[in-house]
What we know:
By secondary structure, the chain is an alpha+beta fold.
Amino acid sequence: MSIKTIPIFPLDLVLFPGQELPLRIFEPRYKQLVDDCMLGDGQFGVCLIDDSAKIQGWQAPHSIGTIAKITKCQDIDIAGRHLSIETVGRGKFKIRKIIEPAVSLPYDYDPNSEEGLERMGQLHEKIGINEKLYIRAEIQMIPEITETIKLDQWKELVELWKEKIILQALPRVLNPFDLDQILVKYSLISEIPTIDYVYSLAALGAASPNELQPLLETDNLNDLIQKVKELFQRR
């Protein structure tokens, strides 16, 4: 398989193929990332933050992520300091090599403050505006799971999910109608379920993004279903 270089956006979430992900962009490094994507194919990599690693002080990504395709981009304010983008998950990939950003994390950097934004802008001008503030990576695409999930497998997962939600809600008592309404809200009532349904159901039952990363890393249907079962049976 061919290897290509893409921008990487580490986030405190797991993006699955087929899922939509809206983002509000205000940091200079990610504004540059979006600008570069809009001049190219509109794609970047979304990876869960790896809490055990840093890259020049910045948060590092897990090695398995998902391509995000920008479907809409617009300015939130007149000055163009904030962007709103809509993306959708495409295929999964594995990072083969990290390309470090041109700037290390500044001491006491606060991306939410005007001072922090100005400081990063000054650093960018100093090193050259063509230098990349964001992490990039050489990646290799991972083949998609093409196996078909059976209806009885899907129904078993739904029942396990309901059991977990009912236990989590105690002492409040949930009735079956409440749970079915949640499934309806997220368009998860179907007689022809797909892998996307499994991913979405797992996201509804996870306590944290770290519980979803192992699911993203599976490469076959049996392993995926087993990991989702383990997720729902975890108390």
